[in-house]
Description:
The complex is a heterotrimer of chains A (260), B (335) and C (380). Chain B is of the alpha/beta class and 335 residues long. Chain B is built from nine helices and 18 strands. In chain B, strand 16, helix 7 and strand 17 (291-296) form a beta-alpha-beta unit. In chain C, helix 3 crosses helix 6 (231-267) and helix 6 (231-267) runs antiparallel to helix 9 (349-359). Chain C starts with 6 loop residues before the first helix and ends with a helix. Chain C contains ten helices and ten strands. Classes of the chains: A alpha/beta (260), B alpha/beta (335), C alpha+beta (380). Chains in contact: A-B, A-C. Strand 14 of chain A pairs antiparallel with strand 10 (145-150) of chain B.
Amino acid sequence: MNILVFIKQVPDTNEVKIDPVTKTLIREGVPSIINPDDKNALEEAIKIKEEYGAKVIVITMGPPQAETALREALAMGADEAYLLTDRVFAGADTYATAKTLAKMAKKFDYDIIFCGRQAIDGDTAQVGPQLAEQLNIPQVTYVKEVKIEGDTLIVKRALEEGYEVIKVKMPVLLTAIKELNTPRYPSIKGIFDAYREKEVKIVTAADLGVDPQEVGLKGSPTKVISTTTPETQRAGEIFTGNVKECVQNLVQRLVEKHVI
Amino acid sequence: MNEYKDIWVFAEQREQRLMNVSLEILGEARKLADKKGVKAYAVLVGYGVKGLADELIKYGADVVYVIDNPLLKNYTTEGYAKVIADLANEIKPEVILYGATYIGRDLAPRIASRLHTGLTADCTGLDIDENGLLLQIRPAFGGNLIATIICPERRPQMATVRPGVMKKAPKDEKRKGEIIEIQANIKEGDIRTQIFDIIKEAKSKVNIEEADIIVSGGRGVGGAEGFKLIQQLADALGGVVGASRAAVDAGWISSDHQVGQTGKTVRPKLYVACGISGAIQHIAGMGNAKTIVAINKNPDAPIFKVADYGIVGDLFKVVPALIEEIKRIKNNEMA
Amino acid sequence: MDFSLTKEQQMVRKIVREFAEKEIAPKAKEIDLTGEFPWDNVKKMAKADMMGIPYPKEYGGAGGDYISYIIAVEEISRACAATGVILSAHTSLACFPIFQWGTKEQKEKYLIPLAKGEKLGAFALTEPNAGTDAAAQQTTAVLEGDHYILNGSKIFITNGGKADVYIVFAMTDKSKGTKGISAFIVEKDFPGFYIGKVEEKMGIRGSRAAELVFEDCVVPKENLLGKEGEGFKIAMVTLDGGRIGIGAQALGIAQAALNEVTKYVKERQQFGRPIGKFQGLQWYIAEMATKVSAARHLVYYAAWRKQNNLSYTMEAAMAKLFASETAMEVTTKAVQIFGGYGYTKDYPVERLMRDAKITEIYEGTSEVQKMVIASNLLKM
């Protein structure tokens, strides 16, 4: 069995700060991490490998620095790693990303494709389903449990209130949510193996055989035309000092405004 | 491109009940359609759901397409994607909007990829620009930035819309519209997933999205014990308890209480933030509350910048006093 | 000259830090309060292959380098210094002598389970009357047939009573002084081996310091480590490496205090502004940060020398001396900057200050380090 896991390296959004003047992200000093949902996807793939035997192939598209994310994935237990990196891939929206990843996926004879539900930098949750469509395979998103029975998966798909139990034949694309598992820490031995005994293979647009017009910014139907920082100011009335007076003032205002 | 016209809303139903978010985006679609001078359509997919079409008209749809078929009884990605994509290929809408639910966010990208068009996820605002393009506004990077996105060259323009952000139009019982039934071109083999079971989890779930009054606690509450006090204030006000990510991450309260970018978006009449500093991610989820009250011991906490009223002080002193004062006022009202 | 960590080492830091922040740090306060031995932490470290980082894979280790190991001790100690010393004593003091002087059989029997983290190790040199004067060993070992019979006691033994395997030093020939000391591998279940008094400590309260008692303790002959009479050399060389570990522990404690301080001075307001805006505190912080950085360079440099098979006795002593004194100074200043709050258990700085003190004492006091440095310099 071959399992492809698509991951993304993202800035840790808990650490992201915005330059108040330029209204752009300050990326300097912000640590890069494997997107959390993608880690759940990877963990599940490795668990399946341990239980049923499988080859876990991890793939990312990104700048050369994204190699670190792949090394971490190898350290967790992935077998092979591919970095899709090329200037023409830059600026891709989810459509163009899925199209590029689909080209890569087609190079393999896969049984399961795992993605995280969504990346914390974009929160779109779109690449997984778009990739499944490009490959014309079924998808199950928001996966919180996976069981394998022969050539079939029994999958629990989370809903807002409850879940569905879905039966689907491989090949299939699954997107993982954090309820699926608790990702392991890469073992220290795994880290040394990842650097000394395993390889991150670089894949360019030419290697993939994609038309540069169809990937990256040029191949993206959507365009970001502006970014701003959220407006949050309200003219508030702040009470300080004696607790009892503060509370009385507040309740009086709320009553006046018919809030309570 | 000019052949593409009108605005569609995917009218999501589960067990023959319309999702709230579908009515919310229908309200928004109505406004956008009026601005462009086009019609708002609802696309209703399911089995035995025709009866819901009227309601969609009352909430602002000019036309409702009903695709009713036993194979569409439960949502499946492939079943729903096929019938909607087929219809869109035939009729060519200019815009399709979906609720950003667990179903909408599964379905919309599949359709977008099939139609080779763009899709913007989880929008919190929509508008039409001077050229008639759909402006799709959404937060990014954990709510630190707000991006405006367009899809200039492909059609339809598609977006999923975050629940709880748009407003439903007032229900108009007299409103008239057209209902068109569409024959679904679908067979069993088109759907490669098989739903075994749908389990509803009987969570004693607080529906903070629907609540009029929310009292929320954050890091300052200090622990699960502190949330009892938050609950008491919520009880006194007749509201429910919310929480910041910090409190949920610390395990003091379950995640269904979480308000914010990674939690739920709420727009209650009254939002009381206790011991919440007001990280941008939190404000992204509650900034639209009608009245915001903040209680925090740090006078520089960002939450005070979005609050209508604030009390600077120790919440363990302020909240009990507040409970007492509210009880006193309410007793007076009754007397 | 290259001061940058390798990609491997950077990844080790990232992963151990993540692990320490999520798995170890949240329990540090409770471990300090209860003084309970953090078995759970030890098991988790074992699972992550942290208990034998610098040893080859064929001996159960992670096959890593010494600097990676030192980084791990630093990061774990930043989260919980008690857990840090468990790791350091196990890896540097128990695994190392077996790796260095053990026979193939000893390595297979003892090093593999130790380095895998299936078993925990300890090092027993100090006695009531042989502290800084380690040569004054009173524990004796007498060969009787196939066995050595050990009699005597050891005190303040880290991991004592919790470890499965002990490296124990004893006199095999009193007439030869230091050349009469030998090293033994003692299992916890050997007959005549008991755990005596367990110390109530000021800091690193989750770690164990216990008395070991040997009453006609029977140790198989094949458990002699190295040759008879090599014990003192084994102890001294082992301690050279151990000191780099303690330097890393001190560094972790100091870094933790510095992090707490930088966070606090931005939040704490007095006279209408964050106290970090006051120059007096800025100077404190600048000095603290400089010393922490200097300590890190000394510790990593000593580790680098050991990794590259260069002499490191003096460098290890310098690293331990400077890092431990930095830890003490930085944590004491941190308590001062936190003021009244710093003296309470509401903030971690008082714990860091108590934890820091031991680093100036064990595996050779600061004074011993100075003796080592001076004797290496003067060669008198």
